[in-house]
Amino acid sequence: MNILIRVQKKIGRGINTLTGKAARWFRRPKKRVFPLADRLLADALRLAEIPSPTRREERRVAFVLERLNALGLISRIDENGNVLVRIHSAEIVDEPPLLLFTDLGSKRWHPLESLSRLDAVHASGAGLGDVLGTAALLSAAENIAGGRIVCRRDLLLLFAARSFDDPGTDVFSSITEIPMNRPCAAIGVWGFTLGSVRVHTQGTYRINITFSLDHKKESGKTEAPAPDRANLVMDALLATAQELSRITGDTHNVVHFYTRRLEVGTGFGRIPSEGILEIEMESSDPSLLDNTMNQVKAAAEAAGEGKPIKITVDITSFIPVGDPAVNAGLFQEIREIMKELRIKTNEENGSDPSAFLSNQGIPSLSLGIVYGQEGLHKDEIEIGSIEKGRLLLEKIITQIPREKT
Questions:
Q1: What are the CA-CA distances from residue 312 to residues 168, 231, 298, 299, 364 (Å)?
Q2: pLDDT tens digits, residue range 257-316?
Q3: Pairing of strands 83-87, 98-103
Q4: Distance CA 83, CA 81 (A)
């Protein structure tokens, strides 16, 4: 009887030991199996903390140059501060390179909110989605330099320090004006959203119209009563907004017109001496878009005639209407790669800087590499999607343009 009791106790202790080990194993945090994706995310987190925008994104450019130099890659900076690096293929081939481009800057940087936060599933922070393209291109450069990715042709990486839609700067000039840099195809790499492909069938203008009292025109005149003076800027601004709505309304919805901001004066009880009207126009008809823009400028300038009001019209952003016919083959190749990776393709119509290249006969599109959500104060990224986005970029580098069968 005693023997049976001792056997039962030993079996019980054995079961308890196994149960305890199993419980500890299930509680133990699982190690991530995507170290390359972790490296990409680490670069993104560091970049997001660097202040932006600045005149030439000097600190972010320094970060990129430090990483490229550590990889033994020779880069150059053009007159606008943009970084361009050419990575040669393993074999000498007399074929045009493939271009990958992205924007270094972010208009949503915040000294506190850009200090990103991490948990097991998400990474979040202000402007985090804006820097994922830069981090992805650095990841690709590191994998090529380390021999993990073998390029079929030369690869050009363009990190833009100036905004692509800046009407006073041609970011792609170092690409389009040098024959040896003219690519066979170009891919813009952004953060959101994995599976989305921008086909840039829309062109956009963003225009700032500022109104201010012109004291030179008021000199020598009898001072108007305060209530009349108080309405000058407001009246001119509202009259301009109404006239612009009439102009764009005559385009039968071919040109879409949006008032993004309307602001005057200081506070209550003060005479408003300044005002601003920010508008955006979008259309798939390039000639109609340009004609409407010229009408808007003329109407705004006419609103100040005969009044002591100074009106200034500035085009702050411009992206042309792209040529979708040039991109048909490239889009199909990207769709096939996404199908292999089981990524659902979502074709997005809208404006995109790749239109500057497609209008010059260069197949060019833009795509996202992560799932998540872009927010007003912070972005939220699904960490698990980074590896799939990284693999998408890797296949694009090694397979585009694909061999024709």
A1: 17, 18, 11, 12, 35
A2: 888 998 886 666 677 788 999 999 999 999 999 999 999 988 888 887 878 889 999 999
A3: unpaired
A4: 6
